[in-house]
Amino acid sequence: IRSFKQAIEIKPNYAEAYLHLGCSYAKQQATTEALATFKQGCAMDAQHPTLWLHAGQMHQQLGQIDQAIESYQHTIALYPKDAMVHDLLGTAYAQLERLDEAFDAFVIALKLNPHHTSAQHNLASLYFRERSFDKALRYWLQMLNDGPDDHTVYNIATAYAGLNRWQEAKTYFEAHLKQQPSHVPSLMNLASL
Length: 193
What we know:
Elements: H1 2-10, H2 15-27, H3 31-44, H4 49-61, H5 65-78, H6 83-95, H7 99-112, H8 117-129, H9 133-146, H10 150-162, H11 166-179, H12 184-192
């Protein structure tokens, strides 16, 4: 941190130094200091998408969701083809219950990168929340094909249960229990089938 501060003292308009100093603060979980540093960097170079991105993430961690959305929108204006930023924007919209905008952001992220697992999961979770189990299932199955993880297996089981497709639900709950034998929700769901 001291070296990056010295670099800023020597060359105060060098945005990269603010980026690295802010990332150093973020690694130490000094979120407020990281945010202030990223915002200073944005003031030095308003065309630096990574500074805006990190500022958005710090705002989001601090619960400043409207400011996070603004920072993500700045990032997208500078670099519109980054699926990760669209996914982050979607999560921020979802936190504010702006679900239509969240859906749109996740869909854009997946158009940019069809295998973006976070966007797949986030979109599937919104569909599940809206009780569109078939749509949620589509994205969770895609995630499973892209690289299985045990939580996705559980999500697939719950989506099948939501669709009253009990045999498939049972199969996936059993598969999940092979991965996590003491997972209480899976045990309870399986017992109720």
